[in-house]
TrEMBL record:
Keywords attached to this entry: Glycosyltransferase, Transferase
Chain segments carrying region Disordered: 361-391
PANTHER family the UniProt entry points to: BLL3647 PROTEIN, GLYCOSYLTRANSFERASE
Domain Glycosyl transferase family: 190-324
The keyword Cell division appears for this protein: no
Protein name: Glycosyl transferase
InterPro entries found in the cross-reference section: Glyco_trans_1 (IPR001296), Glyco_trans_4-like_N (IPR028098)
MF (Gene Ontology): glycosyltransferase activity
Domain Glycosyltransferase subfamily 4-like N-terminal: from-to ranges: 12-161
Any single Pfam family the record assigns to this protein: Glyco_trans_4_4
Length: 391
């Protein structure tokens, strides 16, 4: 498993997937190797939950960190016998030919629409769009974690993907740690996100400030490379005493209790496919107000509330406080929906794909056609394999 920060998972969806899938594959008797970036808490840790850790450095610059680490990882794996490789992030696609030259079958997890992220300038956005094409051209299989991403690759390139969603954790209704933050069960609204424009944290805060909500808004998150946007988020709070910024919360137990006891969870992510934070919220049974894009609707369906602007956030939090019974019912429905996202099933999907790669029965590299040519070149209809229940 190549292209992430590795395990133990501390950061985002890729790392969570690697940990949850990798440990299950190891438990089933497979030899799992995860390429990791260095972390001071993990020094001297050769294995983790049955997975072998290979720790390599990375250039600590946003535009080069992922690619530099993956380049070293690919160089290392070429000297070792492996049956198949999972590469996470289409940005790593330029390195795929090295794996192909070594006859290592590879599946690329293409993630979300990275070229839409505001943190990338024009050069970065062009790179990501080109990387998508290279992933199609040089991967034996493509993994999509959301139906919307699968549709995108069908519409843009006319190619099949393997739909392997993330799992939703089941979070207990425990509240013993809330007192540390002077919070009470059901007594606050919650935002958890990296401070990036496409996550709409500024919009969520501005909408809340414009509302007449009485319960405070608790904001968890930070941004290692985005000081300007962080300043905008804090400015949106307009010194409103109802808004509380906690920064990053890395204590998993405390974070779970924040999710499980919020009156609502406000989710602004818009470009990243199925989001682990959203799944964590529904696994906690928390009523959710989400930015209105297909990725979020695919998860929440009719059980969520949706917004597209600050006024929509204000209306939603006011409505949640005005009708706590309906809000609790929505949360209960989402907890049931979370059952459709099961890590055991996801791991089985990865296991099946690995066997297909080894057997050379995966689709194989695809011809790259121009975007928008589907209607003119008669691109074939493709099927999306669903692994999450109910999809």
């Amino acid at each position: 498993m190549i292209g992430t920060r590795g395990v133990p998972a501390r950061y985002g969806g890729f790392e969570t997937a690697v940990e949850e899938v990798g440990r299950r594959l190891a438990e089933r008797g497979h030899r799992v190797v995860v390429y990791c970036r260095s972390h001071p808490d993990d020094e001297g840790l050769p294995t983790y939950l049955g997975m072998r850790r290979v720790v390599l450095p990375a250039l600590r610059k946003r535009s080069l960190e992922t690619l530099s680490h993956t380049a070293l990882s690919v160089g290392h794996v070429l000297g070792h016998r492996v049956d198949a490789a999972f590469v996470f992030n289409a940005a790593n696609a330029p390195l795929l030919p090295a794996l192909r030259t070594a006859r290592i079958p590879v599946a690329t997890h293409v993630d979300g629409l990275e070229w839409k992220r505001a943190k990338w300038g024009p050069t970065g956005q062009r790179y990501y769009r080109r990387a998508e094409e290279l992933a199609v051209r040089w991967s034996d299989a493509l993994i999509a974690d959301a139906p919307g991403i699968a549709r995108y690759y069908t519409d843009e390139f006319g190619v099949p993907t393997r739909y392997l969603a993330y799992g939703a954790p089941v979070i207990a209704q425990e509240s013993s740690r809330l007192g540390e933050l002077d919070l009470t069960p059901g007594g606050y609204h919650l935002v958890v996100a990296r401070f990036e424009p496409e996550n709409h944290v500024e919009l969520a805060v501005a909408g809340y400030v414009a509302s007449a909500a009485e319960r405070p808004l608790v904001v968890v998150g930070s941004a290692p490379y985005a000081d300007d946007y962080t300043n905008r988020v804090h400015a949106a709070a307009a010194d409103d005493p109802r808004v509380r910024f906690l920064g990053g919360v890395w204590d998993a137990e405390l974070l779970d209790q924040l999710y499980a006891n919020a009156a609502t969870y406000v989710h602004g992510h818009s470009v990243g496919g199925t989001n682990p934070s959203l799944l964590r919220a529904i696994g906690a049974g928390t009523a959710t107000i989400a930015y209105d894009v297909s990725f979020n609707r695919d998860v929440l369906r009719e059980h969520g509330q949706y917004f597209g602007d600050a006024a929509g956030v204000a209306r939603a939090v006011e409505a949640a406080e005005a009708d706590p019974t309906a809000t609790a019912s929505a949360g209960a429905s989402l907890r049931e929906r979370a059952r459709d996202f099961d890590w055991d099933d996801v791991a089985t999907g990865y296991e099946s794909l690995a066997r297909d790669l080894v057997a050379r029965s995966a689709p194989g590299p695809q011809r790259v056609r121009r975007r928008g040519d589907a209607g003119r070149d008669g691109a074939r209809s493709v099927a999306v394999t669903a692994v999450a229940h109910g999809e």
